[in-house]
């Protein structure tokens, strides 16, 4: 039996019951794929259901305000996904009369759609012979064929792409791709793979050798650490906030006035007050409370201090808005700020 037939037969008997599996509507498949980028299914599923309930059609999503989409997205991270998703929805609604492209080569031109998402949509919804290639597929193929090339090297990516497109089913590419996703997630797991339940175990090279250290990866640079100090300023029961517009983390979300230091030694009350004097019209201020947390992003470690100030505080800059607590809680904010707001 061919490799693809084994995967499809296994998938038909063992596929996971996921809400987006009930449809071949490209809008819903696209939405699920965008939400699940860099996100566990258990975390992403409630967001998917919420989006489908609020925006059952691409027209509903396209005509919504970005600020409301970011608020619903809050907590998922990688907020550029939501921004690009909204731009793509508007493009398809306005320029394509709400009709999704069917071919991989057209889908990949959409904002926020990469090779994996384009292959998933084209194969699942339109039966185009295109293989998906993600961590699950890399792991299965590297172990089954014993391929040692690092999966994040140019050579490795080319080799795995060529192999995966050779193996994909001609007649059922969607079922094959979903089968590979499920097999990697539930059986050929990164640690403690369930080889006795795997349909490929009789011919898997890693199983024969009982070595499951694949796939290989090139070592990446160490994560950068940043030192952020958020200034919590209450102004007659309201708070100073600003929209993050620079090309940085949390773009288009809202946060408090910010000071950033280069290292941990700089982050002390004396230096905070020195910086503040350049930001404020008045000089008579005191630090009332300081709360420190550590927050990890994929490529950055954030050392965050929330500093509550007292005094008649007026900022020189006009870039800040002054909002009530209720308004603050309705704005899309980064997760660490959301957690902090709940305690003020």
Task: Explain the overall architecture.
The chain is of the alpha+beta class. The chain has 2 domains: 3-209, Hypothetical protein, domain 2 (Endonuclease III, domain 1, Orthogonal Bundle); 224-341, Nucleoside Triphosphate Pyrophosphohydrolase (Alpha-Beta Complex), CATH 3.90.79. Helix content is 43%, strand content 14%. The chain has 15 helices and 8 strands. The strands form 2 sheets. A 4-stranded mixed β-sheet has the order 5-1-7-6, covered by helices on one side. Strands 2, 3, 4 and 8 form a 4-stranded antiparallel β-sheet that branches. A hairpin with a 2-residue loop joins strand 2 and strand 3 (238-243). Helix 1 packs across helix 11 (173-186). The longest helix is centred in the first third of the chain and has 16 residues, at 80-95.
Topology, pairings included?
Elements: H1 3-14, H2 26-35, H3 41-54, H4 58-62, H5 66-73, H6 80-95, H7 104-107, H8 115-126, H9 135-145, H10 154-167, H11 173-186, H12 205-209, E1 224-232, E2 234-235, E3 238-243, E4 254-255, E5 258-261, H13 269-279, E6 286-296, E7 300-310, E8 321-323, H14 325-330, H15 335-341
Parallel strand pairs: 1-7
Antiparallel strand pairs: 1-5, 2-3, 3-4, 3-8, 6-7
């Amino acid at each position: 039996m061919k490799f693809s037939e084994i995967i499809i037969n296994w998938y038909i008997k063992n596929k996971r019951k996921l809400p987006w599996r009930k449809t071949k509507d490209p809008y819903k498949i696209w939405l699920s794929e965008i939400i699940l980028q860099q996100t566990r299914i258990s975390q992403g599923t409630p967001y998917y259901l919420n989006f489908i309930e609020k925006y059952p059609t691409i027209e509903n999503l396209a005509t919504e305000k970005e600020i409301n989409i970011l608020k619903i997205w809050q907590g998922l991270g990688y907020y550029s996904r939501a921004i690009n998703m909204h731009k793509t929805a508007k493009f398809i609604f306005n320029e394509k009369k709400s009709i999704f492209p069917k071919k991989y080569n057209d889908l990949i031109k959409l904002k926020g759609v990469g090779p994996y998402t384009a292959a998933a949509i084209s194969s699942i919804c339109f039966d185009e012979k295109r293989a998906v290639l993600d961590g699950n597929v890399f792991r299965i193929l590297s172990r089954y064929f014993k391929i040692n090339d690092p999966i994040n090297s140019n050579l490795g990516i080319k080799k795995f792409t060529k192999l995966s497109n050779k193996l994909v089913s001609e007649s059922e590419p969607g079922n094959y791709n979903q089968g590979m996703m499920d097999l990697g997630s539930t059986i050929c797991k990164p640690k403690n793979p369930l080889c006795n339940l795997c349909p490929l175990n009789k011919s898997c090279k890693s199983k024969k050798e009982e070595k499951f250290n694949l796939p290989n990866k090139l070592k990446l640079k160490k994560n950068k650490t940043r030192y952020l100090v958020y200034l919590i300023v209450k102004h007659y029961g309201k708070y100073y906030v600003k929209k993050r517009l620079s090309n940085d983390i949390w773009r288009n979300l809202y946060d408090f006035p910010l000071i950033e230091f280069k290292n941990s030694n700089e982050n002390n009350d004396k230096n905070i007050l020195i910086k503040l004097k350049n930001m404020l019209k008045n000089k008579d201020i005191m630090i009332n409370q300081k709360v420190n947390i550590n927050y990890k992003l994929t490529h950055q470690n954030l050392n965050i201090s929330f500093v509550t100030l007292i005094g008649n505080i007026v900022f020189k800059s006009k870039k800040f808005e002054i909002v009530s607590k209720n308004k603050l809680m309705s704005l899309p904010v980064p997760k660490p700020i959301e957690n902090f707001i709940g305690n003020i």
